[in-house]
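Narrative summary of target 7.
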Amino acid sequence: MGKEKTKYCTCLYYSANALSRIMTKISDEEFAITGLSSSYAFLLMIVNENPGVQPTEISHQMQLTPSTVTRLIEKMEYRNYLERKTVGRTTEVYPTKQAKELHPKIQKAWANLYNRYSTVLGKEFSKQLTADIYKATQVL
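Modeled conformation, tokenized:
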């Protein structure tokens, strides 16, 4: 896509979606070293760093619906990265050995992602843009 302005460039919806598509492409390229899409990699980061985390907390952290998180967990369970345990009335999610071994690559991909976009946008602008977008998601 070109750098020219479109008649939609002043619309938050279109601008946010355009940014999302670009960031998803870059993120998936960087997380390719893990063999996972960025969504799965972020899921594993959460579980690796919080063994026994409940799906509702994952849903909150990833800002995804519980049903979407359940599907992601099921796929990662099938691929032997995660396991669920029922404790009373709750479900806890744990990383497998395979997930723990992949964690350094996931962290590297995340650092590469940050470096890639902050090199283009500038570190200060990247930090401010991230803070502004997050604040908007909280308000909306």
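The domain at 35-131 is CATH 1.10.10.10 (Arc Repressor Mutant, subunit A).
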